[in-house]
Amino acid sequence: MLVTFEVIYGDGWWSASAHAPGNAIYTQGKSIGELIDNILEATSLHYTEELGA
User: Fold this and answer.
1) pLDDT at residue 39 tops 70
2) 11, 13, 29, 49: which has the highest count of C-beta atoms within 10 A?
């Protein structure tokens, strides 16, 4: 499955959003590294059942 995020920088924050089946995934971070970590965490939480299968 491919999940594509739109990444935006504004007001000192990086934010990312994706429209995933069932609902949207949204996260943010102060640095691009923190944003990437948060994207990985938010995506794994969203797909917990699929990853466990």
Assistant:
1) yes
2) 29
Q: How far apart are CA 44 and CA 33, in angstroms?
A: 17
State the first-to-last Cα distance of the chain, in angstroms, to the nearest integer.
14
Whether this prediction's pTM lies above 0.90 is answered by no
**Cβ-proximal residues to 5 (8 Å cutoff; 6+ apart), any chain:** 16, 17, 18, 25, 39
Q: CB of 27 within 8 A of CB of 16?
A: yes
53 — pLDDT class (breaks 50, 70, 90): low
